[in-house]
Design goal:
The protein folds into 3 domains: about 1-55, Structural Genomics Hypothetical 15.5 Kd Protein In mrcA-pckA Intergenic Region, Chain A; about 60-130 and about 215-240, Pseudouridine synthase I, catalytic domain, N-terminal subdomain (Alpha-Beta Plaits, 2-Layer Sandwich); about 130-210, Alpha-L RNA-binding motif (Alpha-Beta Plaits, 2-Layer Sandwich), CATH 3.30.70.1560. Helices cover about 25% and strands about 30% of the residues. It has helices at about 5-10, 15-25, 75-80, 120-125, 145-155, 190-200, 230-240, and strands at about 1-5, 30, 35, 40, 50, 55, 60-65, 100, 110-115, 135-140, 165-175, 180-185, 205-210, 215, 225-230. The longest helix is centred in the N-terminal third of the chain and has 9 residues, at about 15-25.
Amino acid sequence: MERLDKILSNYGGLTRSTAKEYLKKGRISVNGSIFKDGSIKVSESDEILMDNKPVVRKKFRYFMLNKPSGYISSTEDEQADTSPNVVSLLKNEGVKGLFPVGRLDKDTTGLLIITNDGELGHRLTSPSRNIEKCYIAEVDGILTKEDTEAFSKGFEFKEFTSKPAKLEILNTDTENNTSIAKVRISEGKYHQVKRMFLKRNCKVLKLQRVSEGNLNLDETLKPGEYRELTDEELDLIQQN
């Protein structure tokens, strides 16, 4: 048994004072009945609703987000960029401590894991794990076999040498002088995919991450939409 106001604070994303206000306004119900006293104790089997939405009593939560363009995904960027952070898209979940696992550039879209599990986040972003990430890129210029070979050898940059990457050309449009390709890399340096294409004199026009390790982006999610990972998907990322 646990106090209702403590549950609202730990799992509902509310401060103690805000929880008290929600209770006072009748926005909290337990098993279908409105409760205004936060000191009552409830069991794990009791259903708690906040604004008619279940309060999920789990220590850690795991979400898959289809990141839209225009959102930043790192706390460092918040200091220099007033654009919204991806975590704001999940504000209605009322979960404390959510953060994006890794980062995607502001104009890059696609798969992003959002969680409050710091240990998992650290493990998935550790360079030593060499987790493969797959992107679909649209670039200006016509890609050729020579570009595929160049990606497979890696590139020399000022601060690092990139590991070999896999470039698969999916489509070329000679009329518009553009190409679409799938890129697989096992590291995630700043603007890495874009910089690799620039080494081949191609500018990235659009970039979307479609998989990370064993986890694939749910194609039914529109940009800005998210959902909780299934148990099977959580097992997959645990294996990464």
